[in-house]
Amino acid sequence: MSVTCEEGEAELKAKMATVMVTGIGVLLAGCSSAAPPSTTGTTGSTASTIGGVAGTAVFSVRPVLCAAPDYAGAAGQSPPAGALPPCAAASQLSVLNLVVTPSSSNPDGYTSNTSIPPDAQFAAYPSTTPANDTATATVLLPAAPPTPAAGRFVLGPAGLTGASVQSASAQVGNGGWLVNITLTSAGTAAWNELARTQFHAFVAVDVNAQVVSEQLIQPTALYFTTVSGQVTVAGFTESEARTVVSEITAAR
Questions:
Q1: What are phi and psi of 42, to 5 degrees?
Q2: Are 141 and 50 in contact (CB under 8 A)?
Q3: Cis before residue 146, ω within 30 degrees of 0?
Q4: What is the CA radius of gyration of the chain?
Q5: Could you list the mean pLDDT of each consecutive 10-residue stretch along the chain, which spans 252 residues?
Q6: Rounded Cα gap, residues 46 and 41, in angstroms
Q7: Rounded CA separation 75/97 (Å)
Q8: What is the 3-state secondary structure (H, E, C) of the chain?
Q9: How far apart are CA 14 and CA 33, in angstroms?
Q10: What CATH number is given for 9-70+90-122+134-250 in this structure?
Q11: How many CB atoms within 10 Å of residue 23?
Q12: What is the pTM of this model?
């Protein structure tokens, strides 16, 4: 199964061949072919740690608002109460700050601002627990272990959830295993709305309160294009891909 786009097969394969896999997975949706800037951190590499608490499973795709440092709360000190604060303006991974510009002369096919710092204020906040990883909430989630120095992300409310998934499967591809996700008709509409909103910005795949993939939406394209019901997450080992498929299926 491959990404469905209104393009010729050769052109699609050429785009997919340019993807830079940095960690556990890279989201290939709507023919996106970009790698995230290093300032946002990279995803982890052991999907076997993703499995949720017995009887629970959470899957969602969310907008990435900003990167965050690791938790640095003092022992015995209570974390700040209440909802998470907004990301500081200078740290927002917004279209305005990212300045993604398609460029045929660049090896990646685009240029962007890669100097956006993690938002230091979130060092005082622990990561959101799986129990509080609800679709309507803004959450602070780590990348799947092991995490890098800036391996947490502030994510907005979910654009789509497990209810949007018709099926998920794992298959081997060039350079690793893929997780193929077929969306329902409502899920396809939800994905296209999220991707349109995040065009030239980031989305993240959240599985059981961990980020398994985060990726720019269509950074090499001048104009947004929709997908027709399928997205693919790439860059897994076989065991990682099968774990993620199991969790997505359980979350439906």
A1: -120, 165
A2: no
A3: yes
A4: 17
A5: 31 29 35 34 37 69 96 81 94 97 96 96 94 96 62 95 94 89 96 96 93 90 92 84 91 88
A6: 16
A7: 35
A8: CCCCCCCCHHHHHHHHHCCCCCCCCEEECCCCCCCCCHHHCCCCCCHHHCCCCCCCCCEEEEEEEEEECCCCCCCCCCCCCCCCCCCCHHHCCCHHHHCCEECCCCCCCEECCCCCCCCHHHHHCCCCCHHHCCCCCCEEEEECCCCCCCCEEEECCCCEEHHHEEEEEEEEECCEEEEEEEECHHHHHHHHHHHHHCECCEEEEEECCCEEEEEEECCCCCCCCCCCCEEEEEEECHHHHHHHHHHHHHCC
A9: 10
A10: 3.30.1360.200
A11: 23
A12: 0.78
User: Do 7 and 31 form a contact (C-beta atoms < 8 A)?
Assistant: yes
Angle at CA of residue 205, ends 131 and 96, nearest 5°: 115
Domains of the chain, by residue range, sit at 9-70+90-122+134-250
In the numeric block, the tokens 């394969």 are attached to 13
d(CA 9, CA 18): 15
Residue 246: predicted pLDDT: 92
Rounded CA-CA distance 179/61 in Å is 14
* pLDDT digits 0-9 by tens, 147-164: 333 489 999 999 999 999
